[in-house]
Structures are given as structure tokens and as C-alpha cells.
Amino acid sequence: MTDNIKLPDPLPVAAALPCGSAVILRHYDAPDRSGLAHELAALCRRKHLRLLVAGDARLALAVGAAGLHLPEKQARQGPGTWQAWRRPDWIVTAAAHSPAALRQAARIGADAALLSPVFESAGHSELSPLGPLLFAAWRRSSPLPVYALGGVSAATAPRLSISGCCGLAAIDGLASPCSLVY
Predict the structure, then answer these.
(1) What is the average pLDDT across 68-81?
(2) How many other C-beta atoms are found inside a 10 Å radius of the C-beta of residue 41?
(3) What's the CA gap between 166 and 22, in Å, rounded?
(4) Which residues, 6+ apart, have CB-to-CB distance to 68 below 8 Å?
(5) 122 Cβ partners below 8 Å, 6+ apart?
(6) All structural domains of the chain
(7) Among residues 86, 45, 88, which one has the least CA distance to residue 69?
(8) Which residues contact 117 (CB under 8 A, 6 or more apart)?
(9) How confident is the model over 112-136, as a mean pLDDT?
């Protein structure tokens, strides 16, 4: 996942990801978000990565993204206008911070959810980390596949090995080359 503060230029990190990975473009406040999205989309096509654009179905469509990521607040609002822009082949993910949010993501037709924060994370310092056990319990109650997000790094990822998560998502875990999680 990109972040305009922690990862101002996501292109080098995206270029280092293994084939088949996904990149979620957040960078909500970037001065030229559209330009960055086009650059990232071109890189993702060359590297066989999937690009999801967060919160903006029109931009996702314009850059030929593989899908859309919905922040939890947007997912809570229901299908809304993004549903009209959705393409049949899109991957739609939703952020979740509770079992209710996981259920809501399923109700609106998301394909998967990103549940956070699993570990201590600067991104959601107001939320207590779930830890691997609570994460696993909430994941089991989810009708959707669930990715682990929040404090995921090379040091913490092994603690999720039996959680049943379908994958890992990271911001800080990608911001430094020595902490890359594959």
C-alpha cells in the first residue's frame, strides 16, 4: 500500500515487488495523484503487478487498474457511485477494523478485506493492535478472504503463519529496503 508520508515515491518499491503482487495506490493528497496513478499503472503492467486505486473508481478506470480499494468509511456508505463504475473483472477490496466492517465489506460485494492493525502501527495509532490471535478469530468469522495489515514486516509476518490470512499487506514493511516482506 502506498502512503504519501511514509512512502512518497512508491515507484521504486513497486518495481521491487515480485510478479503477481498487488499495489494499492492511496496517496490521497498527492498534488498529481492522477499522474502518479498513470505512472504506477504503466509500471504494474510491465512488472505483471495488479494495481488497485483506493477510493476513486473513475481514476481506477482511467488508468486501467485491476480494481478498487475502499477505505472503511467508504465501504460503510454502501455500494454507492463506485458500483456504477465497477468492471466485472475488477478486484475490489475494503479496509476493515472490526468484525462488523468485515461483514459490511462482504455485503457491498468486496472480494477481500484488509484487516488492521494486526500489530502496532503508526498508521492507526488510535486503535489497539489486534495481535495474531484476535486477528485469526476475526478472520475466521469473516465471509471474505482477509489480508493482514498494520505493522506487518519481515519481523512480524512469521507470527501470522497459522492465522489463515490470505496474504499480507504493508506500508512500513515496504518503506525500507531492509524490511521488505515477500
Answers:
(1) 92
(2) 22
(3) 13
(4) 52, 53, 54, 55, 56, 57, 60, 82, 86, 90, 91, 92, 93
(5) 6, 172
(6) 11-179 (3.20.20.70)
(7) 86
(8) 97, 123, 124, 127, 129, 130, 149, 150, 151
(9) 92
Burial level of 103, CB count in 10 A (0-12/13-18/19+)? middle
Residue 158, preceding peptide bond in cis (omega within 30° of 0): no
Q: Give residue for cell 456508505.
A: 77
pTM: 0.93
Query: Which residues fall within 8 angstroms of residue 97, CB to CB, at 6 or more apart?
Result: 72, 115, 116, 117, 124, 127
Which cell goes with 42? 504503466
Which three cell numbers mark 25? 495506490
Percentage with pLDDT > 90 across the chain: 82
Contact 11, 43 (CB under 8 A): yes
